[in-house]
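re: ur question from earlier - yeah i can do the single chain one, its not a big deal. heres the input i used so u can compare w yours
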Amino acid sequence: MDTYAGSMTPAFAALIAICLALVGVAGIIVPVLPGSLSVLVALVVWAIWGGSTQSLVVGIVGAVLVVCGMLASAVLTQRRLGARQIPQWPIAFSLVVGVVAGFWIPVIGLPLGFIVSLLLIEYVRVKDLKAAWSTSVVAMKSVGTGMLLELAAALLAVTLLGASVFASLIL
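and the output i got, formated as tokens:
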């Protein structure tokens, strides 16, 4: 067996990469965990220690997919928020409130805390309930769409990673 980047075996690299990738996919859905960054690290681990040209190519292609997903998410979200002149701080604050609420109320705390706090912050900011509801809905849709784009790119990259691991270690 020829390892060219230290003493990590391809099997151990595969185990680490798959675990990191699964944590990353979960982290895109539940923002408490690191999301796309974990998937990116998983792909780098597989590219470096996978022990084959295939693992290197999959690592590079997967990393490009993940970065494109992150950029598409950020650009789309920013564009939609900018079009309605919604600042980013209410979303960031509401995300923190949602995460804290997620620990207090399992399962529904995160979305409930995010939605309620976003509506309250927007009401304080624009001083009109109808306008606050409208901007909150736009913010939630743009964040949700961005998360879906990022998730789709990460899932595609993780699928490539899984196929590469299967092909390298099982076949």
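The chain has a mean pLDDT of 90. not sure if urs matches, ping me
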